[in-house]
Amino acid sequence: MTRRLLPAEAPDDAGTPSLTWLGQAGFLLRLHTAGDGVYTLLIDPYLSDSLAKKYAGTEFPHQRLMPAPVTADRLPDVDLVLCSHKHSDHMDPETLRAVTAAHPACRFVVPEAWRAHAIDIGVPADRVIGADADVLLEPLPGLTVMPVLAAHETLEFDEFGHSRHLGYVIEAGGLRLHHSGDCVPYEGQADRLKDLGIHVALLPINGRDAYRLQLAVPGNFHPEEAVTLAAAMRAEVFVGHHFGMFEFNTVNEEHLEEALRRLPESIQWLRPEVARPYVLHET
Question: 215-222, long-range: CB within 8 Å, 24+ apart, which pairs?
């Protein structure tokens, strides 16, 4: 069986699993369980302009290059939100408060290290699920989440040993998707992910450099590192993200083009368009 993500011809496209990029690291997923359940998930949604307000007048003003594709109240009923770490383009206070209000049954998976922060910014405590690396969660019947370590330049832990940055492997109906969060390569990463049988890899491609880091903007995979990891984990589809939102923190197109020449032919490369649904096809 080979899996491919193709543009949807209709919003639900015959009820198949689907993925929609919301910009930056944000995705909307429609996943189907073995028991015919259908869930709507958000991962790292940034649907406000809070960073432009926060960083106005600084070296990196965080002006959007693309508008938010949707508001929280226009989303389909959201069952679950997953946030990979504290940074506001991943755990955005304005977005999470809006989702909390518009979707009262929705629950929120966040790193245990940032549980208190999620509550402080307005997510009700009884709707927060703390996540730790390698501790399997089943936040919804028939849907599991395996948190995995992420290194946002480095592996970081709080005083209790909880990782400050996580990726997630989400499984429903036999489909496994991996969202790495913000991440760079670290020892043992590829072997761990290979063991998890991932079909679709959602990986950042905006790279990193010393200049951005000294101004408190830690980076992500260079395109060639993302290609290497997608191949090492034996993914069937590689979806790039974390580009095109902020001028100072987007992908180097030449590096991406060169890296993609080394992507195995067995792996589909998808450069998603914002707000366009892609549906899963199996052959």
Answer: 215/59, 215/60, 217/60, 217/248, 217/249, 218/152, 218/153, 218/182, 219/153, 219/184, 220/152, 220/182, 220/183, 220/184, 221/180, 221/183, 221/184, 221/185, 222/255, 222/259
- DSSP designation for 15: G
Distance CA 106, CA 123 (A): 10
pTM (2 decimals)? Answer: 0.97
- Burial bucket for residue 257 (CB in 10 Å: 0-12, 13-18, 19+): exposed
Q: Coil, strand or helix: which one is 231?
A: helix
Distance CA 56, CA 38 (A): 41
Domains of the chain: 3-282 (3.60.15.10)
pLDDT in tens, 197-238: 999 999 999 999 999 999 999 999 999 999 999 999 999 999
State how far the Cα of 226 lies from the Cα of 207, in Å rounded to an integer: 9
Q: Is the pLDDT of residue 148 over 60?
A: yes
Give the list of residues 6+ apart from residue 53 with CB closer than 8 angstroms, or none: none
d(CA 137, CA 14): 29
> How many CA atoms, within 13 angstroms, populate the side-chain half-sphere of residue 242?
28
DSSP for 67-131 reads --S--GGGSPPP-EEE--SSSTTTS-HHHHHHHHHH-TT-EEEEEGGGHHHHHHTT--GGGEEEE
Q: For residue 10, what is the enclosing H or E element?
A: none
- Residue 177, φ and ψ in degrees, nearest 5: -115, 140
- Tokens coding 281: 């096809």
